[in-house]
Amino acid sequence: MPRSKTLTEAASQRNDVVARRTARAGDGYKMITSFDIRNFRCFDALKQNGFKRFNFIVGDSGTGKTALLEALFLAGGANAEIYLRVRRLRGFGESGGIELLTATKAAYESLFRDLFFRFDQKAGAAIKFRDSEGRDRSLEIYYRGDETYKLPLKGPLGNAFIVDPITFKWETPTRVINSQIEIKDGKFEMTGASDVYPIVFVTPNTASGKLNAIKYSELSVRNQQKPVLAALQRIFADVEDLALENVAGELILHVSLKHLNEKLPLADLSGGMNKYLAIILSILANPKGVLLIDEIENGFYYRNMPVIVRSIIDLCNEYEVQIFATTHSYEFLQVLSRIIDDATEESEEAAKHFTLMRLERSASYQPTLKLVSGETYKAAIDQSFEVR
Amino acid sequence: MPTIPSRSQEITEDFLIVGEGEGDSAFFRHLLANRGIAGFQAEDAGGSGNFRNHLQGLNIRSGINRLRALIVVGDNEETPDDCFKRIRSHLKKADLPVPNNPLELAPRTTGFPVAVMMIPFDKARGALESLLLKAATDHLVVPARCVGNYCQCINTSTWPKTASDKMRLRCMIAAAWPEDPNIGLQWALSPDRKLIPLNHPCFDEVAQWLSDFPSLL
Question: Minimal Cα–Cα distance from A359 to chain B, Å?
Fold first, then answer.
């Protein structure tokens, strides 16, 4: 494996970023500061405020870490199609599980039943968040009840059923939009479109070489791709260039290495690079936005973790991107603790940009959320507490 | 770099006792077992200087939601009031409830209430070793007599009580455990070694307070 950058070089780069960040001090930094989730997935009611630039979520499996990210992602969406994307991210197939649909009311509703707390579809789900500019954005998901239509006669039973189409209602400071998922001519159709909140969701399923190539191309067309190479060079100093190359009709990201005459597919450099690049590309493509990352540590070699995490944090600072990320990794939490330490040395203010949230199940099996400051989080890691 | 939490694990009991060092946590674990008092988990902060970090970090610890109350245990040493004030200061900095007096419960509207127990007990000068010394002296009769003579010989009457008690207990344990005269207090407290009987009446006050503690809530 090519050598990593020296500590001096890495420190120098960090200082540059800190200098740029300091120069921006005083600029408004838009971010989600609170949310209120009701009757969504495993959450009966979950409210929290006090979010900062970097928010990390821990907790046992099944406590709702991914569901929390999904709630924010859905609320930031613009059209009911986003729900099918969430299903894809959950692993329900390329089309979000639609191929399984048969023409029955139960089959239609089965697509959405797990959206609702204890599968109670009657109550409807509601997600609301507020950003640092004081703007509220909300999403209600419900069956209207006043609008029904017949499913087409294409199911195996050959029956027609009256269904009540599910509605995704987004409310922003400027408009209200109702988007419905209907079935017409045997296909799903999504009506309506709202203005989108700049949220990107990176999961282990989205970190593919193909998607990265597309995102890189979009940046490259705008001549904004240079930071991608710089981010890669922080981990692999031998990388000289990054380019899209045609392989059997498909564009694939390749790297030029000092010690190789030919270019190497990026994924061959390191398995975790697709994930890293997916995060970097999402930050660059979504300045002043929100980045949701499920299982942030997934795929990263522990020795590269400090440089990778610092690189992500630095880029988020530079591009004013807020992060909500889940993790199960104690190594990641330790790295983060050291980063908070360093940030505190730079300025006490910098350490205040971090929070750690812990999701736990209460005695009644309801997820509860506890948010603590970066300082408290660091104290817990210093004491070797089990916080995952 | 440790890759897993090395010392303090998930909170699994209703009540958590946090002492200063390993001797404190071992004492409470063995005392609770000896007296059949359930529902408590005992651990140490890794030294009195670590109290603040330990207490602050509790807020995000795995299992914290099930905690019904926290008991912080400190040594009175030579200045009980000052030592209690120090613990109050640690609690305040950790954003935890701060009781006005030892053995009182400081309630909080969210999270868990907190009490502080000062050792030997109440406002008596000394440390955990002072409390243990009473039981060890009654149990280890011969070493106790010899150590008493030794103390006269080296004139420990001018020593601070806490230091004198620690020296006497260390000497008695060393005399009674030749396999490892330097055995740590946390190991010396193990019932298997039969060095310090935890059913001694000198521990009754502490045990009774812990036994009654749930009724304070």
Answer: 9
Residue A20 has pLDDT above 50, yes or no: no
Q: How far is B82 from chain A (nearest CA, A)?
A: 24
Q: For residue range A199-219, list pLDDT tens digits in order.
A: 999 988 777 888 899 999 999
Give the pair of three-digit tokens for residue B23: 């001797």
> CB of A315 within 8 A of CB of A288?
no
Please give the DSSP secondary-structure letter assigned to residue B4. S
For residue A368, give the 3-state DSSP assignment. Answer: strand
| pLDDT at A185 (0 to 100) | 61
Across A88-96, average pLDDT: 71
**Distance between CA atoms of residues A88 and A90, nearest Å:** 5
**CATH 3.40.50 describes domain B15-125+200-216:** yes
Has residue A39 got a pLDDT over 60?
A: yes
User: How many pairs of residues across A and B have Cβ atoms under 8 Å apart?
Assistant: 81
C-beta atoms surrounding B62 within 10 Å = 21
Put simply, whether A303 touches B (Cβ < 8 Å) is: no
A362, A381, A387: residue with CB nearest B62? A387
pTM recorded for the entire structure:
0.80
Q: Does A331 touch chain B (CB under 8 A)?
A: yes
Count CA atoms closer than 13 A to A295's CA, side-chain side. 14
Cα–Cα distances in angstroms (integers) from residue A169 to residues A80, A148, A175, A357, B159, in the given order: 9, 17, 10, 28, 77
Distances (CA, A) of A136 to A35, A197, B49, B59: 9, 11, 45, 29
Residue-range domain boundaries for chain B? 15-125+200-216, 128-193
Is-contact A10 A84, C-beta < 8 A? no
**Cα A354 to Cα A52: distance, rounded to the nearest angstrom:** 6
Q: A380, B57: Cβ pair inside 8 Å?
A: yes
Taking residues B189-207, what's their average pLDDT? 95
Q: What ipTM score was computed for the predicted complex, to two decimals?
A: 0.71
CA–CA separation, A141 vs B105, rounded Å? 46
Radius of gyration of chain B measured on its C-alpha atoms: 18
How much is the pLDDT for A365?
77
What number is the average pLDDT over the span A274-289? 92
For residue B174, the one-letter residue type is: A
